[in-house]
Each structure stands twice: as structure tokens, then as C-alpha cells.
Write a structure and sequence with these properties.
Elements (H helix, E strand, L loop, with lengths): L2 H8 L11 H19 L9 E9 L1 E10 L5 H13 L5 E9 L11 E5 L3 E5 L4 H8 L6 E7 L5 E8 L2 E8 L4 E11 L3 E6 L8 E4 L5 E5 L2 E8 L1
Parallel strand pairs: 2-3
Antiparallel strand pairs: 1-2, 3-4, 4-5, 6-7, 6-13, 7-8, 8-9, 9-10, 10-11, 11-12, 12-13
Length: 230
């Protein structure tokens, strides 16, 4: 459907053949609204789509949305998405808060980015961008058993390498800092291959490679987070 057809739906008096009843006009307005919603939630850029997961409102005070992105994007796309999502609700809110998560968004996880109208629109990306991740992944200096990426506000590229001191897990963060942990490999029938901290841990911290090849971080309480295989 092109722009002319949309204009005819929205402005029935402009249609040369239209002499619609009130019911027909309402039906066309419903079609127009459906088209707008579909267009506004379809595509952020050539390869990134988004979906509203949760929405909460305090009348005239604030509106909050949790949005899942299909992948990482930039500030320009996030600004466009924010404007579209804000336009979907014509009610007045003093502030609108929009949080963006990368798949799969874990319950209680920290957003990868935000675009808040507070009251002016401000876009912030807390997590790691594609180019940052690729740069950090290229810094391994020893033979690598695997490379993973944890995303969110504590984004890092994680490698397990064979160093002169044994298995070494390196976590490289986007601010340039790095942590190093020596590991010892163990095997349990229920969980398969695991890597415990060589220095030991009073919290039982260790990592596992799951069936999908992702790196899971565990302690005595259970699963902490998962880094996706690169």
C-alpha cells in the first residue's frame, strides 16, 4: 500500500469516489492504525528488528518499555526506534523510559542500551559494540580453546587459552581492563567438562561449556550468567 492509499484512508474526503458512512470511516481508520503499528514495530535497520516485551504506565507521570532487539545497532537506529515507540501512545507522560535487551534477555538482566525521554531524548549504549568485541577477540596471544562474548553493562570477550602456566581464562572488558584466572579441568558425569578456578573459590565459582558451545558461569547458588560462543 502506497502513500496515496494511506492518505485516502486517513482523509476520506480526499478520495474522489468516497462518500463513506461513519461506520465505513471508522473501519478505514482501524486499518490505518493497524498499518502504522505494523510499520512502527517492524525494522530498525537493514538487519535489526525489535519487539516490545513489557510495558507499564503511570498516567501523566511515566511510561516504561522493555524492548528486545534482534541484534546490536547504533545510536541513530535507537533514536528512530524510540521516536516510533513514543508515538504509539498519544497520552501525555512526563517521562518515557525505554530499555533495550539483546536475545535472550535473562530475567533481571541489565539493559544493553536505553533511550529515555527525561524529558528530552537521550540515547546510551552500555554494552559492547560489534567492532569493540571483534577487536578484543583478536588480542589472544596463546592457542585458544574457545572465545565467547558476555553482553550487557559488564560486557566482555572471554577466552580460554593454553598458556605456559596452564589453562588461562582471560576476560577483556570494553574499557581496556582485563582479568586473568588460571583454571583446572574437571569432568562430572552430570555436567560434562568443567573448569574450576585453580586458586580455589569459597563460593564454588567455575565455568562450564554447555551443549550449544556457550560458556556458563556458576557458583554454589547456581547459574550466574552465560557468555555466547563467537
Amino acid at each position: 500500500m502506497g502513500c496515496e492509499e494511506l492518505q485516502c484512508l486517513w482523509y476520506p474526503a480526499r478520495h474522489p469516489l468516497a462518500n463513506w458512512t461513519a461506520g465505513e470511516t471508522m473501519a478505514r481508520l482501524l486499518v490505518f492504525t493497524t498499518l502504522v503499528l505494523a510499520l512502527a514495530s517492524r525494522v530498525a535497520s537493514a538487519d535489526v528488528t525489535y519487539e516490545v516485551l513489557n510495558e507499564s504506565k503511570l498516567p501523566r507521570i511515566e511510561r516504561s518499555l522493555d524492548v528486545r532487539l534482534s541484534g546490536r545497532t547504533d545510536e541513530t537506529d535507537l533514536r528512530d526506534i524510540a521516536l516510533k515507540l513514543k508515538a504509539l501512545d498519544s497520552a501525555y507522560y512526563k517521562r518515557t523510559f525505554i530499555m533495550y535487551y539483546l536475545p535472550p534477555p535473562a530475567p533481571g538482566s541489565i539493559p544493553w542500551a536505553t533511550s529515555h525521554f527525561n524529558p528530552k531524548l537521550e540515547v546510551k549504549i552500555f554494552g559492547m559494540r560489534r567492532e569493540q568485541e571483534a577487536n578484543l577477540a583478536s588480542r589472544a596471544t596463546s592457542p585458544v580453546l574457545g572465545t565467547w562474548a558476555s553482553r550487557g553493562i559488564m560486557a566482555a570477550v572471554v577466552t580460554i587459552e593454553r598458556s605456559s602456566k596452564g589453562l588461562l581464562m582471560r576476560q577483556r572488558f570494553k574499557d581496556g581492563s582485563e582479568s586473568r584466572t588460571l583454571l583446572k579441568e574437571t569432568h562430572e558425569p552430570k555436567h560434562g567438562k568443567q573448569y574450576h578456578y585453580k586458586a580455589g573459590s569459597s563460593f564454588g565459582e567455575h565455568v562450564r561449556i554447555n551443549q550449544a558451545g556457550d560458556l556458563e558461569f556458576w557458583d554454589h547458588e547456581g547459574l550466574i550468567t552465560t557468555a555466547k560462543k563467537r
